[in-house]
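The instructor's notes for this session suggest beginning with a concrete chain rather than abstract definitions. Hand out the sequence below and ask the class to guess, before any prediction is shown, which regions might be ordered.
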Amino acid sequence: MAKKEYAFYPGCSSQLRASAANYLVSTNSMCKVLDIKMTTIPDWNCCGASISYAGGSELSRLVMNARNFALSETHLPDQDIVATCAACWLGAREAKHKLEASPQLLADTNEALHEAGLNYNGKAKIRHMVEVLIEDFGYETLGKPVVKPLEGIKFAGYVGCQTNRPFGIAGESFENPKYLDKLIETVGGEAAIQYEQKVTCCGGALAFSEPEKSQKQIRDIVESAYDQGADMIVTPCPLCQANVEVYQSEINKKYGTRLAMPVTYYSQLMTVAYGGTAKEAGLDGHIIQPKKLQDIADKQL
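After discussion, reveal the predicted structure:
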């Protein structure tokens, strides 16, 4: 029997060969050590986080999320739904909030779901993976499996905007959330506690429509990490990870900068600290290689 069991919503970006496939690899490795059972919601669908940019209606987004909720309630009753993707988590939380606040929206949503033989009862609780780690386990418990402390590496904890506003992590400040700093310290790393860009938007929504604005955001995020002496950035958001990592080379071409800051996931830090290999931590999935983290992963116990 697993210590904790959850209904897992992986999201589109974590699929094989998708942009955050290595996030899922490291999450699975981390969960194995912590004895967390993540059962994927059967036949889950996209959360619809991006369709608003293409003119999708509010009801269509609600139905897409509520279908996942209903499938979870049917197949994995009484289990919290856990998402690793910040956009998926935010979209799902927003959908649940709106459906709870409006009997009419709930009725309209269930009318659409009934066509597929489903019904949303409003029971599913939506959580981000970091909520599970912090609230259900706690920092002391998360530190117990550490066998390779991440000594000698300084991390800039980049929370981003989607896991911070409007819902955030319980008990955390919107202006200066500390949970990433605490997770970094829990696995033996050094946190850049004065990192100024930790809750700014990475400009992911503007990457194609207004790239100059997006890349200005990224440059500020990366340069602030350098200013704090960080060796790499760590984030809970797949969009932030991809956006901040991928566009550094484009920024270098445009402005003559020499940015080369690795951008990692908290689950990768934890997997390496727990004794996982570079492959188990998904470190082979980076464009900018997190060499200092790889070196620790390669060390023999």
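Then share the key points. The mean pLDDT is 93. The chain has two domains: 4-129, 146-298.
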